[in-house]
Structures are given as structure tokens and as C-alpha cells.
Amino acid sequence: MLPHARTGVHVLSAHAVIRRLIRSSGVGPDDLVIDFGAGPGTITAPLAATGARVLAVERDVAFVHRLTRRFADQPLVKVVHADLRTVPLPGRDFSVVANIPFALSTVLLRRLLNRRRRSLAAADLVVEWGFAQRIVAARTPETAKWSEKYELRVAGRIRRTDFRPVPRVDSAHLVIRRRGRE
């Protein structure tokens, strides 16, 4: 068993899926984008290649050291040793492209979508398949409020075999776009 298999860390290893996430996000030069749960940087590196400013947020100290070494010579990448539940969010417009920890999906969506200041412009998230289905179909007061400000949709299914180690369930590419975005 891989060391992170017991901790729930599942690294997205399918390059085609990563390219689709980044292409969907539309991030480019001068954009600010956050990779929550950056892990070894499998999404961070291609994000940096777009010319965007990337905040690689990671809680695990071993991954933080690995990311710091990997991106030491890339000024557009800032590695942030923090928990996605408490890290301060930017005051300016930003996007998120990330394979987030499944257990923290609801917490992160609430942090991003319940803010008074609508600085989240867009998000392309890898989340558990069932969670994504529930979010886009739900008719709760909370999701109704989110839908007033943001479009939420599932762009596609991501096979469980696209991760290392392989999780028990498939994932989804959840797309979030701020309504009225220029």
C-alpha cells in the first residue's frame, strides 16, 4: 500500500484529465489561481505553464517540502503551507483548479460560494462523483443561493483508475462559473 493510501490522498495521474481541467478553466497570464491540496504538484505545474500566478495550498508538510523544491525557480508559483479550511482567500478575483480532498468538498464549497464578496470567478474541481451529482441537483436553500450567483455543472466523469492510489469511487469534474462574469 502506498503511504498516502491510508490518509485518503489520491493523486490525479491522468495527464489528459489534467489538461481538460486547465483548458476548461481558461486561466492564463496574470490570472490568480489556487490549487487546493496541491500534493506533489501534478496540477500546479501545468497551471504554472499557462502563465497564471499559482497559489499551491498544501497541508501535508512532506508535500510542502516537495513542492517548495520543485517550484523554487518558478516565481509565478507560491507554495502555501496551510489548511484549505482556514487559509485566507484572496480579496481580488481568483480561480480554483484543484483535485480537492473528498472529505473537505462541502467545507471548501461553502468557503468559496458563501462569501459576501464574490471574488471567486471560476472553479474546476475534482470531487467525488456522487457529491457532484447531489450538488448540481440539490434544491436546498443553500444550493439555491449558490445558483443565484454561480452556475454549477458536471463537465464529466473521471474514472477511479485515473488516480494513484486508486480510490473506491469515480470522481467528477465540477465546473463553477460566476454569473455575469465578463
TrEMBL record:
What are the GO MF terms of this UniProt record? Answer: RNA binding; rRNA (adenine-N6,N6-)-dimethyltransferase activity
The answer on whether this UniProt entry bears the keyword Methyltransferase reads yes
Presence of keyword Methyltransferase: yes
Query: Which residues does the record give as S-adenosyl-L-methionine binding sites?
Result: 10, 12, 37, 58, 83, 99
For this protein, the record's InterPro entries field holds: KsgA/Erm (IPR001737), rRNA_Ade_Mease_Trfase_CS (IPR020596), rRNA_Ade_methylase_Trfase_N (IPR020598), SAM-dependent_MTases_sf (IPR029063)
| UniProtKB keywords | Methyltransferase, RNA-binding, S-adenosyl-L-methionine, Transferase
Q: Which residues form the Ribosomal RNA adenine methylase transferase N-terminal domain?
A: 17-180
What domain of life?
Bacteria
Give the family, as the similarity comment puts it: Belongs to the class I-like SAM-binding methyltransferase superfamily. rRNA adenine N(6)-methyltransferase family.
Q: What is this protein called?
A: Ribosomal RNA adenine methylase transferase N-terminal domain-containing protein
Species the sequence originates in? Kibdelosporangium phytohabitans
What is this organism's lineage?
Bacteria, Bacillati, Actinomycetota, Actinomycetes, Pseudonocardiales
